[in-house]
Design goal:
Layout: H1 3-8, E1 18-20, H2 23-34, E2 53-56, E3 61-66, E4 69-70, E5 78-79
Length: about 90
Amino acid sequence: MDRKLLDILACPATRMPLAMLEASGLEALNRAIANGGVHLNDESVQASPLREALVTRDRKTVYRIDDGIPVLLAEEGIATAQVADFPKA
């Protein structure tokens, strides 16, 4: 993702800055998705694995990136508390 774009993106709910989710966080999240244990903030199930994602600075919420486009809708966010082995930093 373009660094200039990443510098201006923020969480739609908290306005917290976002960063690219690193490989270990993405792997942990995708394991939980494969086990059927991940819901979006709107309570729907996240069924497909993520290829890329953004995470808030406090690492509490993840937003997926679809075909290079960040999906920054509060109801589409994923709370990382659902993922038992989500890395803290």
